[in-house]
Write the structure tokens for this entry.
Amino acid sequence: MSKEPKQSLLNQEPASQEPKTAEITFQDVKKPTNLSANAMPLDGYVLSVDGKFKLRYENSKDAMAAGIKLKQAYPVIQVAIYDAAERKYTAVGLNGPEKSASHVEPVEA
């Protein structure tokens, strides 16, 4: 073993340096907008969980997909999609959108 001082070993560059990898940015992915829980949205589609507004989406397809995923993970909670333009809720079930009680047609016996 050589009798070099410890400082000279610390000052040496490592023999192999890994090249720096380029940082990946996710600018193409647009996250939904977080809303205030007590503000009524004026446009878009909003995910409502247990009666409180959570996330705003640009189209109903994205909002419904998020609602179904949330309902599958937590089946006890009430999930609905609020259409701000029409001011109408659509309930989300485990299999997709459900008809609300006001839209069910009476059955004749």
About this structure: The chain has two helices and six strands. The helical segments are 6-11, 60-73. Residues 31-96 form one domain. The radius of gyration is 27 Å.
